[in-house]
Amino acid sequence: MKFFIDTANLKDIQEANELGILDGVTTNPSLMAKEGITGKDNIEKHYQKICEIVQGDVSAEVISTDYEGIVKEGTHLASLAENIVVKVPMIKDGVKAIRHFTDNGIATNCTLVFSSAQAILAAKAGATYVSPFIGRIDDTNWDGMELIKEMAEIYAIQGFETQILAASIRSSRHIVEAAKNGADVCTCPLSAILGMLKHPLTDNGLAQFLADYKKGNG
Ligand code: E4P
User: Fold this and answer.
1) Residue 218 confidence class, pLDDT cut points 50, 70, 90
2) Is pLDDT of 142 > 90?
3) Is the distance from the beta carbon of residue 6 to the nearest atom of ligand 1 less than 6 Å?
4) C-alpha torsion 6→10→15→16, nearest 10
5) Contact in structure between 1 and 129 (CB atoms under 8 Å)
6) Which among 37, 42, 50, 170 could bridge 135 via Cys, Cβ 3.0 to 4.6 Å?
7) pLDDT band per the 50, 70, 90 thresholds, residue 189
8) How close is the Cα of 153 to the center of ligand 1, in Å?
9) What is the mean pLDDT of residues 182-200?
10) Ligand 1 pocket test: which of 13, 28, 138 has the largest number of ligand atoms within 8 Å of its C-beta?
11) Domain 2-217 belongs in CATH node 3.20.20.70
12) How far is the CA of 5 from the centre of ligand 1 (A)?
């Protein structure tokens, strides 16, 4: 399973990259706003900075919601760096635009996916990635992981090549469950990635090893 970091924070991206486990980055307009990045030029420069840090795929989301606008904006975003993936919302014009990008060799991430029906449409349009939002589904008292499981089953049966990118991840447990249920990629905040390191028995065991070493070696 690939690991993406879900942020526009350059420090967090750098830290995850230095761990040596990072395969890419996802951003969205809310994450950009959280970093105080506003205005078309600044946003584009920020994408370029991210692409300089990370070799893998970097999702850049379009703001347009009409077919012509999405195609124009996405084509421009894709020209900013070789590893840009155009992130397109799961709407009618978005699906049409994904087909256009697919036919023109531009990688896409179909975002805001909440059902297997939507996931089938994204795959039929040839999306590189499809992003089911696990945490937001859990917030509505449904089970986000059930969606990952069903999507993985459908994609395997149908032979779809679109990669399932588990998004809206809130914890390290979410990452484990997404891996178990067939996600190809998990995009997570740095806290969830670092949370995977934690186990009290590791901390206790290490403290004991170091104490025993100190007893014998001064
Ligand atoms: C990533 O592609 C999504 O935009 C992101 O994971 C959404 O996460 P949130 O539900 O925590 O905002």
Assistant:
1) confident
2) yes
3) yes
4) 30
5) no
6) 170
7) very high
8) 23
9) 96
10) 28
11) yes
12) 10
